[in-house]
Amino acid sequence: MTEIERRKVPPDEIVGAMCVWLGCQEKFVFPEGNINNTYLPEDWRCLIVAKGSLFNAETIMNADVDGFLCPKHNKVLLGLLKTGRIIEKIR
Fold first, then answer.
1. Where are the beta strands (DSSP E) in the chain?
2. What's the pLDDT score for residue 47?
3. What is the DSSP letter of 61?
4. Residue 19 per-residue DSSP state
5. How far separated are the first and last CA of the chain, in Å rounded?
6. Residue 21 has what pLDDT?
7. Helices (H) and strands (E) in the chain, counts
8. What are the boundaries of each domain within the chain?
9. How many CB atoms lie within 10 A of CB 57?
10. What is the mean pLDDT of each run of 10 residues along the chain (91 residues)?
11. 72: how many CB neighbours lie within 10 A of its CB?
């Protein structure tokens, strides 16, 4: 099999995540050990790319992209969206 096998992980099995930016190795672990009733670490952001209404939970569950951005890559993406240029220096 050449494609990566994917499975939906039940929320109670999620203990953390990595940044979805290609090549980034930043990661975090939820303080309580799982995603239930837990907020993301400061300056981390959830990235969802989906077709449909975000008011419909099914839209989010079937998103084309869902993942997390570390603080550095959150700033890069926001800069790219606002200016059309990738900002090289991140403070």
1. 16-18, 27-29, 45-49, 65-69
2. 85
3. H
4. B
5. 42
6. 92
7. 2, 4
8. 11-83
9. 9
10. 57 80 91 66 85 76 81 91 70 50
11. 15
Neighbouring-strand partners of residue 45: 69
pLDDT of residue 27: 93
Collect all residues with Cβ–Cβ distance below 8 Å to 41 and sequence separation of at least 6.
28
Q: What is the rounded distance in angstroms from the CA atom of residue 50 to the CA atom of residue 40?
A: 20
Query: Six-digit token pair at 30?
Result: 């939820």
- For residue 6 the two structure tokens come to 């994917």
Cα 69–Cα 70–Cα 75 angle in degrees, nearest 5: 85
Give pLDDT, residue 16.
81
Residue type, 21: W
Question: What's the token pair of residue 5?
Answer: 């096998």
Q: Which two tokens stand for residue 82?
A: 């606002």
What token pair was written down for 70?
């570390």
Q: Are the CB atoms for 34 and 11 separated by under 8 Å?
A: yes
Its pTM stands at 0.67
